[in-house]
Amino acid sequence: MRPAGTIAWITGASAGIGAACARELVRRGARVYGTARSRDRLEDLAATLGGFSPLPGDVTDLAAMRAAAADIVAREGRLDLLVANAGVWRSLPLHRFSAEAVAATLEVNVTGAANCIDAVLPHMLERGRGTIAGVASLAGYRGLPGAAAYSASKAALIALLESLRIDAPRHGLRVVTINPAFVDTAMTARNRFPMPFMVDAERAGRAIVDGLEHGHDEIAFPLPMVAGAKLMRLLPVRLHAELFRRFGRGVSALAGPR
Q1: Which residues, in sequence order, are CB contacts of 204 under 8 Å at separation 6+?
Q2: Residue 237: exposure state from Cβ atoms within 10 A (0-12, 13-18, ≥19)
Q3: Which of 68, 123, 168, 184 falls 20 to 30 Å from 223 in CA-CA distance?
Q4: Which residues are part of the catalytic machinery?
Q5: What predicted TM-score, i.e. pTM, was given to this entire model?
């Protein structure tokens, strides 16, 4: 995918990874539409970033996401790239477990992404061209302590994208999974545990756009965290649990929330 001339739609675009991706795509010649719940932040970004247009909305509202995608197509004649980035993180240790917290996290991180994919697929299938990218997390590789809702939501998003990727090429589409580790955003600013190899949002945006441009099916970074997280996936179930029981937060730092 060449960013120059691309018509892109990014959710969660008002700050953090989403805003950084928007800036990087615009820098490389793309026309970007950004969706988030904060109209003011989107308009502030648009004021400083030519080539960026705000489309305020809530990803959990399917009708609103369908309308946003239709609006982009009506304005531009096409939609080439979706970056489904909107997400939430909350700590959920065993003693504070709640079904409501799990449902609320899944609604944004999984259903929200699905709503956006639903919104763009008819147009992309009709054109026989397009890229769907979802921002999951290395935390979706294995369950992490205190992250029952977040890890579950990111694991579900990884599986959703993997399933779509199987059929995508025969329809002319690409499906990309984006798995960051720790990125310096408002989401991670609340964490009170070690976050090694943290990258800033601008570096994350460059890594994501580089991966999209180079045609990668998975964009995961930074490398030391990716290696650790992929090794964790190979551990037997009992050993995985025992490691976290013994070393707790130190091990969870291998792949935490973005």
Answers
A1: 17, 20, 180, 183, 221
A2: exposed
A3: 168
A4: 150
A5: 0.91
